[in-house]
Backbone:
Protein backbone atom coordinates (compact mmCIF):
# COMPACT_ATOMS: atom_id res chain seq x y z
CA UNK A 1 0.00 0.00 0.00
CA UNK A 2 1.37 3.40 -0.95
CA UNK A 3 1.53 6.27 1.53
CA UNK A 4 -0.12 9.32 0.05
CA UNK A 5 0.71 12.77 1.30
CA UNK A 6 0.26 15.05 -1.72
CA UNK A 7 -2.40 17.67 -1.13
CA UNK A 8 -5.16 17.83 -3.71
CA UNK A 9 -5.81 21.08 -5.53
CA UNK A 10 -9.17 22.81 -5.56
CA UNK A 11 -9.50 21.91 -9.24
CA UNK A 12 -10.50 18.40 -8.14
CA UNK A 13 -13.79 19.61 -6.67
CA UNK A 14 -15.96 20.45 -9.66
CA UNK A 15 -14.27 17.93 -11.92
CA UNK A 16 -15.37 15.15 -9.62
CA UNK A 17 -18.82 16.62 -9.16
CA UNK A 18 -19.28 16.41 -12.89
CA UNK A 19 -19.09 12.60 -12.86
CA UNK A 20 -22.48 11.29 -14.02
CA UNK A 21 -24.36 8.39 -12.50
CA UNK A 22 -24.61 5.56 -15.02
CA UNK A 23 -26.45 2.28 -15.01
CA UNK A 24 -27.30 1.09 -11.52
CA UNK A 25 -24.31 2.75 -9.86
CA UNK A 26 -24.81 6.25 -8.49
CA UNK A 27 -22.02 8.81 -8.31
CA UNK A 28 -21.36 8.03 -4.65
CA UNK A 29 -21.77 4.26 -4.42
CA UNK A 30 -18.72 2.10 -3.84
CA UNK A 31 -18.03 -0.72 -6.23
CA UNK A 32 -15.84 -3.58 -4.99
CA UNK A 33 -14.75 -4.12 -8.58
CA UNK A 34 -13.04 -0.72 -8.91
CA UNK A 35 -9.78 -1.50 -10.66
CA UNK A 36 -7.39 0.68 -8.72
CA UNK A 37 -8.84 0.76 -5.21
CA UNK A 38 -5.88 0.58 -2.82
CA UNK A 39 -7.52 -0.79 0.33
CA UNK A 40 -10.88 -2.33 1.13
CA UNK A 41 -12.33 -2.07 4.63
CA UNK A 42 -14.40 -5.09 5.67
CA UNK A 43 -16.43 -5.79 8.81
CA UNK A 44 -18.07 -3.52 11.38
CA UNK A 45 -15.89 -0.49 11.95
CA UNK A 46 -15.17 -0.02 15.69
CA UNK A 47 -16.39 3.06 17.51
CA UNK A 48 -13.14 3.33 19.50
CA UNK A 49 -9.95 3.88 17.49
CA UNK A 50 -7.58 4.33 20.40
CA UNK A 51 -4.44 2.19 20.40
CA UNK A 52 -4.66 1.36 16.69
CA UNK A 53 -1.47 1.74 14.62
CA UNK A 54 -1.17 4.96 12.65
CA UNK A 55 -1.86 4.74 8.94
CA UNK A 56 -0.85 7.04 6.06
CA UNK A 57 -2.27 10.48 5.40
CA UNK A 58 -4.50 10.44 2.32
CA UNK A 59 -5.21 13.66 0.44
CA UNK A 60 -7.56 13.98 -2.51
CA UNK A 61 -11.27 14.28 -3.19
CA UNK A 62 -14.19 12.09 -2.18
CA UNK A 63 -15.17 10.24 -5.33
CA UNK A 64 -17.70 7.79 -3.89
CA UNK A 65 -19.67 7.22 -0.67
CA UNK A 66 -21.57 4.26 0.72
CA UNK A 67 -22.65 3.87 4.34
CA UNK A 68 -19.63 3.98 6.64
CA UNK A 69 -17.08 3.98 3.81
CA UNK A 70 -15.79 6.55 1.38
CA UNK A 71 -13.44 6.39 -1.57
CA UNK A 72 -10.81 9.11 -1.84
CA UNK A 73 -9.16 9.68 -5.22
CA UNK A 74 -5.69 11.21 -4.95
CA UNK A 75 -3.90 13.56 -7.32
CA UNK A 76 -2.09 10.63 -8.96
CA UNK A 77 -5.38 8.86 -9.72
CA UNK A 78 -5.15 6.20 -7.01
CA UNK A 79 -8.26 5.28 -5.03
CA UNK A 80 -8.33 4.50 -1.32
CA UNK A 81 -11.43 3.12 0.39
CA UNK A 82 -11.46 4.45 3.96
CA UNK A 83 -13.81 3.53 6.78
CA UNK A 84 -15.65 6.17 8.80
CA UNK A 85 -16.06 5.47 12.51
CA UNK A 86 -18.20 7.10 15.18
CA UNK A 87 -14.87 8.31 16.56
CA UNK A 88 -13.82 9.96 13.28
CA UNK A 89 -13.33 13.70 13.72
CA UNK A 90 -14.61 15.73 10.77
CA UNK A 91 -13.40 19.29 10.94
CA UNK A 92 -13.85 22.31 8.68
CA UNK A 93 -11.80 25.48 8.53
CA UNK A 94 -12.94 28.86 7.25
CA UNK A 95 -16.39 29.13 8.79
CA UNK A 96 -19.53 28.75 6.64
CA UNK A 97 -23.02 28.88 8.12
CA UNK A 98 -21.65 28.06 11.55
CA UNK A 99 -19.45 25.21 10.37
CA UNK A 100 -16.54 26.37 12.51
CA UNK A 101 -17.64 23.96 15.23
CA UNK A 102 -15.22 21.23 16.21
CA UNK A 103 -16.96 18.29 14.55
CA UNK A 104 -19.24 17.89 11.56
CA UNK A 105 -21.48 14.94 10.80
CA UNK A 106 -20.57 12.31 8.23
CA UNK A 107 -23.37 13.66 6.01
CA UNK A 108 -21.06 16.60 5.25
CA UNK A 109 -18.73 14.25 3.35
CA UNK A 110 -20.11 14.99 -0.10
CA UNK A 111 -18.98 13.55 -3.37
CA UNK A 112 -16.31 15.80 -4.91
CA UNK A 113 -15.18 17.38 -1.64
CA UNK A 114 -11.38 17.84 -1.28
CA UNK A 115 -10.21 16.32 2.01
CA UNK A 116 -7.08 15.44 3.93
CA UNK A 117 -7.55 12.25 5.95
CA UNK A 118 -5.49 11.02 8.90
CA UNK A 119 -5.93 7.26 9.24
CA UNK A 120 -5.36 4.29 11.48
CA UNK A 121 -4.87 0.70 10.36
CA UNK A 122 -7.62 -1.79 11.14
CA UNK A 123 -8.72 -5.10 9.69
CA UNK A 124 -6.28 -4.96 6.82
CA UNK A 125 -7.57 -1.56 5.74
CA UNK A 126 -7.74 2.08 6.78
CA UNK A 127 -10.16 3.94 9.05
CA UNK A 128 -10.27 7.73 9.23
CA UNK A 129 -9.27 9.14 12.60
CA UNK A 130 -9.62 12.72 11.39
CA UNK A 131 -10.92 14.32 8.19
CA UNK A 132 -10.03 17.94 7.43
CA UNK A 133 -11.86 20.02 4.83
CA UNK A 134 -12.38 23.66 3.96
CA UNK A 135 -15.74 25.29 4.59
CA UNK A 136 -15.62 27.09 1.23
CA UNK A 137 -15.23 23.73 -0.52
CA UNK A 138 -18.15 22.31 1.46
CA UNK A 139 -20.29 25.26 0.42
CA UNK A 140 -19.43 24.72 -3.24
CA UNK A 141 -19.95 20.96 -3.04
CA UNK A 142 -23.32 21.41 -1.31
CA UNK A 143 -24.49 23.89 -3.93
CA UNK A 144 -23.25 22.04 -6.98
CA UNK A 145 -24.42 18.64 -5.75
CA UNK A 146 -28.04 19.71 -6.10
CA UNK A 147 -27.48 20.11 -9.83
CA UNK A 148 -25.75 16.79 -10.49
CA UNK A 149 -27.26 13.51 -11.63
CA UNK A 150 -26.76 12.21 -8.11
CA UNK A 151 -28.79 15.00 -6.56
CA UNK A 152 -31.32 14.59 -9.37
CA UNK A 153 -32.32 11.22 -7.91
CA UNK A 154 -33.36 12.82 -4.64
CA UNK A 155 -35.95 15.28 -5.93
CA UNK A 156 -39.75 15.10 -6.02
CA UNK A 157 -42.03 12.87 -8.07
CA UNK A 158 -42.28 15.66 -10.62
CA UNK A 159 -38.53 15.55 -11.01
CA UNK A 160 -38.61 11.80 -11.53
CA UNK A 161 -41.21 12.22 -14.25
CA UNK A 162 -39.04 14.76 -16.03
CA UNK A 163 -35.96 12.60 -15.59
CA UNK A 164 -37.80 9.71 -17.19
CA UNK A 165 -38.19 11.81 -20.31
CA UNK A 166 -34.83 13.54 -20.32
CA UNK A 167 -32.38 11.85 -17.98
CA UNK A 168 -30.67 9.45 -20.38
CA UNK A 169 -30.71 11.64 -23.47
CA UNK A 170 -27.49 13.41 -24.42
CA UNK A 171 -28.58 15.28 -27.54
CA UNK A 172 -30.16 18.70 -27.11
CA UNK A 173 -31.27 21.66 -29.16
CA UNK A 174 -29.83 24.99 -28.01
CA UNK A 175 -32.63 27.50 -27.61
CA UNK A 176 -30.49 30.39 -26.42
CA UNK A 177 -27.15 31.33 -24.87
CA UNK A 178 -26.39 34.14 -22.45
CA UNK A 179 -22.77 35.11 -21.76
CA UNK A 180 -21.76 37.03 -18.65
CA UNK A 181 -18.25 38.43 -18.32
CA UNK A 182 -15.65 38.77 -15.56
CA UNK A 183 -12.62 40.85 -14.66
CA UNK A 184 -9.18 39.24 -14.82
CA UNK A 185 -8.75 36.64 -12.09
CA UNK A 186 -12.23 37.33 -10.64
CA UNK A 187 -15.43 35.35 -10.35
CA UNK A 188 -17.75 37.87 -8.71
CA UNK A 189 -20.84 38.94 -10.66
CA UNK A 190 -21.49 42.51 -11.73
CA UNK A 191 -25.01 43.99 -11.32
CA UNK A 192 -25.38 43.82 -15.10
CA UNK A 193 -24.45 40.12 -15.12
CA UNK A 194 -26.91 39.39 -12.32
CA UNK A 195 -29.69 41.04 -14.31
CA UNK A 196 -28.76 39.07 -17.43
CA UNK A 197 -28.78 35.78 -15.55
CA UNK A 198 -32.27 36.25 -14.15
CA UNK A 199 -33.46 37.27 -17.62
CA UNK A 200 -31.98 34.05 -19.01
CA UNK A 201 -33.73 32.03 -16.29
CA UNK A 202 -37.03 33.70 -17.16
CA UNK A 203 -36.50 32.90 -20.85
CA UNK A 204 -35.74 29.29 -20.01
CA UNK A 205 -38.73 29.05 -17.68
CA UNK A 206 -40.97 30.10 -20.56
CA UNK A 207 -39.51 27.31 -22.74
CA UNK A 208 -41.14 23.90 -22.40
CA UNK A 209 -38.85 21.14 -21.08
CA UNK A 210 -35.88 23.51 -20.85
CA UNK A 211 -32.73 22.73 -18.88
CA UNK A 212 -29.76 25.01 -18.21
CA UNK A 213 -26.13 24.11 -18.86
CA UNK A 214 -23.55 26.44 -17.28
CA UNK A 215 -19.97 26.47 -18.61
CA UNK A 216 -17.14 28.65 -17.29
CA UNK A 217 -14.18 29.95 -19.32
CA UNK A 218 -11.06 32.08 -18.89
CA UNK A 219 -8.66 33.99 -21.09
CA UNK A 220 -5.10 32.75 -21.68
CA UNK A 221 -3.52 34.58 -18.74
CA UNK A 222 -2.19 32.21 -16.06
CA UNK A 223 -1.32 28.53 -15.91
CA UNK A 224 -3.56 25.72 -17.10
CA UNK A 225 -4.26 24.54 -13.55
CA UNK A 226 -5.04 28.06 -12.34
CA UNK A 227 -7.43 28.70 -15.22
CA UNK A 228 -9.19 25.39 -14.67
CA UNK A 229 -9.95 26.29 -11.06
CA UNK A 230 -10.94 29.84 -12.04
CA UNK A 231 -13.34 28.66 -14.74
CA UNK A 232 -14.96 26.27 -12.27
CA UNK A 233 -15.35 29.01 -9.66
CA UNK A 234 -17.03 31.23 -12.23
CA UNK A 235 -19.42 28.45 -13.25
CA UNK A 236 -20.18 27.68 -9.60
CA UNK A 237 -20.89 31.34 -8.85
CA UNK A 238 -23.35 31.52 -11.73
CA UNK A 239 -25.12 28.30 -10.73
CA UNK A 240 -25.40 29.55 -7.16
CA UNK A 241 -26.93 32.84 -8.31
CA UNK A 242 -29.36 31.21 -10.74
CA UNK A 243 -30.68 28.87 -8.07
CA UNK A 244 -30.68 31.16 -5.05
CA UNK A 245 -31.52 34.54 -6.55
CA UNK A 246 -33.28 33.76 -9.83
CA UNK A 247 -35.33 30.83 -8.51
CA UNK A 248 -34.10 28.28 -11.02
CA UNK A 249 -34.84 24.76 -9.80
CA UNK A 250 -31.77 22.55 -9.21
CA UNK A 251 -33.35 19.58 -10.96
CA UNK A 252 -33.54 21.62 -14.18
CA UNK A 253 -29.79 22.22 -14.16
CA UNK A 254 -27.34 20.00 -16.01
CA UNK A 255 -23.96 19.39 -14.41
CA UNK A 256 -21.89 22.61 -14.66
CA UNK A 257 -18.32 22.53 -15.85
CA UNK A 258 -15.21 24.65 -16.27
CA UNK A 259 -13.38 24.70 -19.59
CA UNK A 260 -10.45 27.00 -18.67
CA UNK A 261 -9.20 28.75 -21.84
CA UNK A 262 -10.73 26.25 -24.27
CA UNK A 263 -13.20 27.41 -26.95
CA UNK A 264 -12.28 31.12 -26.97
CA UNK A 265 -14.79 33.50 -28.49
CA UNK A 266 -12.08 35.93 -29.56
CA UNK A 267 -8.32 36.31 -30.05
CA UNK A 268 -6.45 36.05 -26.76
CA UNK A 269 -3.61 38.20 -28.13
CA UNK A 270 -5.64 41.38 -27.61
CA UNK A 271 -7.11 42.93 -24.47
CA UNK A 272 -10.55 43.13 -26.11
CA UNK A 273 -10.40 39.47 -27.09
CA UNK A 274 -9.37 38.38 -23.61
CA UNK A 275 -12.30 40.32 -22.15
CA UNK A 276 -14.72 38.36 -24.34
CA UNK A 277 -13.17 35.06 -23.30
CA UNK A 278 -13.49 35.69 -19.53
CA UNK A 279 -17.05 34.48 -19.47
CA UNK A 280 -19.65 32.00 -18.31
CA UNK A 281 -22.10 30.72 -20.90
CA UNK A 282 -25.62 29.87 -19.77
CA UNK A 283 -27.17 27.62 -22.41
CA UNK A 284 -30.89 26.89 -22.66
CA UNK A 285 -31.25 23.31 -23.85
CA UNK A 286 -34.21 21.15 -24.82
CA UNK A 287 -33.82 17.46 -25.53
CA UNK A 288 -34.36 16.63 -29.19
CA UNK A 289 -36.65 13.79 -28.13
CA UNK A 290 -39.19 16.19 -26.61
CA UNK A 291 -38.55 19.37 -28.60
CA UNK A 292 -41.73 20.36 -30.35
CA UNK A 293 -44.01 18.16 -28.23
Residues:
Amino acid sequence: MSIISNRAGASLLLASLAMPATGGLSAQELSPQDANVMVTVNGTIPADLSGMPEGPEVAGFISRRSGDKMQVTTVDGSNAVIGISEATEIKASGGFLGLNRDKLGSDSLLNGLPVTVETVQWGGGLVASRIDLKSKDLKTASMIRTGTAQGFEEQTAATEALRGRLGDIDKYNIKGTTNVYFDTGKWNLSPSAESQLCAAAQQADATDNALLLVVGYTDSVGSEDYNQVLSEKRAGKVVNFLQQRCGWKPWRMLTPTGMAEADPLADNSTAAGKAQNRRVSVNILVSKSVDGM
Notes: Residues 1-39, 95-102, 146-169 have pLDDT under 50 and may be disordered.
